[in-house]
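Pipeline run #58 for the internal structure catalog. This entry was flagged by the ingest filter as a single-chain record with no existing model, so it goes straight to prediction. Upstream metadata was stripped on purpose; only the residue string is passed forward. Reviewer on rotation: M.T. Logging verbosity set to normal.
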Amino acid sequence: MPSVRAERPGASALLGWLTDPEAPRLCLVTEAPGLLDWLAAHGPRAAGRRRAARALVPLAGQSALGTAWAVAGRLGAVATSPADLVRVLATTETGRTSRTVLLLPGLDAAAEPVRIAELLRDLATLGRVRVVVEARPGSPEHAVLATAPAAVVDGEQGTEPGPAAVEPGLPDLSDPLAVCAADPVAVTTGYVRDAADQHGGLRPAWLRAGQALCTARTPADRALALLAALGDGADPRLRPALEEAAATAPWRLRWSRVAGDVAPPWPGPVAALAVQGGTLLAADLGGAVRLLGAADARPHGQLDHPVTGRVTALAPAPDGTVLLLDERGRLHTVRGREPRPPYLQRLTEAVAATLTRHPGTALAAISGSVVVGDRLGSVHAFGLTGLHQAALHSGRVTAVGAVESETPFVCSGGADGTVRRWTPGREPDPAPLAERPSPVVSLHAAETPYGPFVAVAWADGTAELHQTETGERRSFRPGPPLRAVAVTPDGALVLGLDEALVRLDRRTG
C-alpha cells in the first residue's frame, strides 16, 4: 500500500496539521489540486478512537449565502445568512462543531470568493471548528484569509492550475418547475445576484427556505418547501404549479402564513405552540398568545393571561384551563369557562408553589396530571395519586408532551438530542423514540383518530412526526430555524418559525 506522503502532494503536512491540537484553526492549501477531495474520501478509520469527521463543501459556483447554508448543514446548525452562521456557532453548541473539519476546495471558482473568504476567516477565528480551504496565492480571497492565523500547506510546485471561476448555467428563475429541478447552487447564486427582480415571489421564498432547498432530495421536496415559504403576494400562478410539482411529496401543505401576509395575516414570530380542540395557541416573543383556527389559521383573538414577559411553554388541560410556563420557569394559570374541580385547582397550586423554588424548563398537562421537565434532565409527573419522577436525559429537558390514551404516557426531549417515552409509575422505555445529534427545541404529543402522534423539532432544522403505534415517521425541513411544533386533533403537523407558521397534512394512499 503506498504511503500517505506518496498519495497526494502536501498530504503529510495536512495530516500533521489535523493532529496538532495547538495548530491554528485555519489551514490554507495551495498548489495541491485534488488534495481536499482525497482527504475527504480517505476519512479517519482508526477503530475505538474519537476522530474528527471531515465534511467536504465544494465552493465552485457558490455564493456566500449558499456556502453558509452548506456549512451550517454539515455542522448540524441552521443559519439564515453568513453573519447568522457566525453568530449561531459563537453562541450555541450544535453537537458537531468541535468534531468536524471543514474541507473547502475551489474557492477560486466560487461566485463570490472574497465574501466566502471573509466568512471562512470569521469561522476559523471563533476557534470552534477547523477550516481547510484551497486558495490561490496572490488572489484577493487569499489575502483576506491570510489576515487570520493560519497554517499553510504547499503542494509540489509546477502542478496543474486550479479550476477557473465557474459561471453556473442558470435556469429560468421565474419558472417554478425549472427552479425545483435545477442545481440548487446555481439557483441560489442566481437569486443572490438578481436582487432587483423578485421573480413573482419565488426569490424571497427561495431565500427564506434555501438551506432546506439545497439539501432536498427531489424536485417534489423542493416544491413543497418553496410552497410553504411562498407569501400571499406572490404571482397567483405559482401556487398551483408548485402544488402539482409537490404531488409526490409525503406531505400536503394545508396552509402557511409568512411574514408580510395580509389575508389572513401572519400572526408573528412563534416562541411556543399548543392545541386546544380546533384552536391553535401561538405565543410570540413578547408574551402575547394568539388564538388561531387550526384548519385555516384565521385569527380568533388573544389569550388573556397573567404572564409578564416571554411564554416558553403552553399546556391546555382537558377542562379548558391553560397552563403557561414563563421564561423564569414559573407556572401560571388561565381558567377556562367551566368551574375547575377543587382537586385540580389544588394540584395546580401545589405545582406552581414547587416551581417557584425549583424552576421548570418544560411543561405539559393531561387529565389529573401536570408534567414538568428540569434543567438536570429529569421529568416530574405531578398527579392526584402522587409524584412520579424519572431521570431521562443528559442535561436540560427542553420539551415535554403528554398523551391521554388508554395508557397515558409522557414524551420528553432534551439538550442531548433524544426523545424518550415514559409511563409514570413504570420504568422508561430503554431505547429513545427518536434521536439526532442536535438538541430538541420543541415537542408535542396528542391522541388522534389514527392513534398517538408525537411531533419533534430539533435545532438542526428538522421536524419529525411519529405515529407511536405503527412506528411510521415523516420528516420535513422548512429551511429557517424551528421554534415550535404541534399536532392537531386530526394528526397534522404545525410548525412555528420566526417568519412563518405552517400546517402540513400527511398524504395517505
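catalog note: The chain has 13 helices and 28 strands.
catalog note: Residues 1-6, 157-162 have pLDDT under 50 and may be disordered.
status: ready for reviewer M.T.
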